[in-house]
Amino acid sequence: MHDLVTEYRDENGEVHFEKNTNLMLPPGKHPVIMSEDDLSYYHAYENQGIASKLVLDENGKVKCEYINENGETLVGDYDVVPLLSSFIDAHPDFSYHNRHCMIALTGYNGVFGYRTDTVYLTRDPEHLDANQAIWLEQHPEFDFDQDVAEAKVIADALKAEGYEFASHTWGHRRVNTASVEALKEDNEKWVNTVVPIVGEVDSIIFAHGTDLCGPEDYSYDNEKFAYFKSVGYNYYANVDGSVPVWNQLRDNYVRTGRRRLQAVSGDDRRPERDG
Ligand SMILES: [Zn+2]
Fold first, then answer.
1. What is the mean pLDDT of residues 97-121?
2. Which CA distances in Å does 228 have to 52, 80, 168?
3. How far is CA 201 from CA 65, 96, 166, 173, 265, in A?
4. Which is higher by pLDDT, 269 or 260?
5. Do 4 and 237 contact (CB within 8 A), yes or no?
6. What's the gap in Å between 59 CA and the centre of ligand 1?
7. Is the predicted pLDDT of residue 269 greater than 70, yes or no?
8. C-alpha distance from residue 175 to each of 75, 76, 256 (Å)
């Protein structure tokens, strides 16, 4: 998404965007911007045939840990990240400047399968949900600081491989209906629990395919935009499958519509959903 524009800061430190007129892509290729949401391996995914966490293999590549039906722990390409990395390793011409994809993270169950939200440390009964309480009971060996440290190693390795990060809101919030106060509180949780792992970000991919307003331009009269902009978000994404491509490049922000990526053939056709 950052390649769509060139950024510059004026004397007041304000960031401005202009269309990147030097985006040189090979002829005959159809460019796509890829993003993956919710890379947390939520408790709700346990025993659903989904990987359990991201780990490094013996070569330092990010892979998935996957526990199969016989209880064996396997390490390999069991989800989007290592599948995409292996594909780009084999087909480097797929990727412009080795960009992989943008990973949009919530924080409430931690990130990458590591339980890095502070609720796992405080175990505050007011905020600890049933899934988290059960998980903590089943994992008496859990060490919060170790999970944070391991998640940071994964984040650094992902960045080195060509991935970048965005907020997906801490609590997978609907930004269209949540109040500004609720979104502010939610974003502060994200900054306190996810930024220490992935570093500062300037992008937010809204959960549930929601957005701050309709297709009209964002304006500072929109209190939610004014808030997100004031805390450093310049790149925004909703979900919009109604048109093949939708981008809004403006002096003070960049916004794009996303489509669900899936194989569509015959009976496999399903309606667009939030990714
Ligand atoms: Zn999501």
1. 97
2. 32, 28, 12
3. 26, 21, 6, 18, 37
4. 260
5. no
6. 30
7. no
8. 36, 35, 16
CA of 237 to the centre of ligand 1 (A): 12
pLDDT tens for each residue of 152-191: 999 999 999 999 999 999 999 999 999 999 999 999 999 9
- Note residues around ion ligand 1 (Cβ under 5 angstroms): 37-38, 207
**Closest by alpha carbon to 167, among 84, 99, 233, 248?**
233
Residue with tokens 């359990």: 52
- Domain extents for the chain? 2-260
Q: In this predicted model, what pLDDT tens digit does every residue of 58-87 receive, in sequence order?
A: 999 999 999 999 999 999 999 999 999 999
If one counts every other C-beta atom within 10 angstroms of the C-beta of residue 68, the result is 10
* Identity of the amino acid at 51: A
